[in-house]
Amino acid sequence: MKRTFPSLPLCLLTFLLLSQQCTGIRWLVLSQTTQHINKTQHCKTLPGLVSSQALLCRSNLELMQTIIQAAREVKKVCQKTFADMRWNCSSIDASKFLPDLERGTRESAFVYALSAATISHTIARACTSGDLRLCSCGPIAGEIPEPGYRWGGCADNLHYGLLMGSKFSDAPMKMKKKSGSNANKLMHLHNSEVGRQALRDALVMKCKCHGVSGSCSIRTCWRGLQDLKDIAMDLKTKYLSATKVVHRPMGTRKQLVPKDIDIRPVRENELVYLQSSPDYCTKNDKLGSFGTQDRQCNKTSSGSDSCDLMCCGRGHNPYSERVVERCHCKYHWCCYVTCKKCERTVEKYVCK
Description:
By secondary structure, the chain is of the alpha+beta class.
């Protein structure tokens, strides 16, 4: 039987169709939420949540402001990390949610990995800063520190961040009712775990010096997470070397295996994708491409931000822009710097 839809505005119909497909990271639309979540009734009105996420919201109400902040961080960090490439995370614009994120592309792999890492990172940091009453500092490291070092401070609570972050971000892929293919679900779950593993690898020792006149005779140390921008760059490296996979019977069940080298299983630390990406050169709503027309490019670069690569051979247009900079700075003893403000004209370029 042919399915028919009631008469709906095209934009609303598109949203409804995409929301059925993009459930895995649909929670990222929370980045647009301005409401302060302090009542369980608010969980019903939050956009982009599946039923299990709404249930988690009601039972962990204070956690939602942190999750909303995580959604904003995903968009900001993603766009900054890919500012020099044709695909610049435009797909996670909450008002569009372009379909390339559910086609199983390597861009989808990056966004799922970054989303999983960011939500756990944000929760772990919120525990440390005292923004969440249900958690506090992470545990003190078990090993004995070197001479001149001592454990102290407030460690980022990575354990709690991973626990609650994975419960929330993986919930759509673990729903019993069928929403999307099993291959896509396996891919998204795998890439989300790669993101969390990158977060585990980003837990490093941080120290603060103590001593007379800054001698640093003793250091108080704790386990702290690297900044999200560093974790995103690590995931970008994995994105560039991602492995194309197929959903193939292996033993008693279907698994994701490398398409061209299926003699080995998928590695736990590699991003995987099912479908090749568009080239993102021209606008194509069906493929989720904004195109690169009017994107800024670097005429002197030979990398991905070069005018040749960014503009896909279409050429570029120059324009002039006046910028104000600090100049003629002087150091005054002791201890401040004074500078003047200088204007200069710089030439920039955008893709045709």
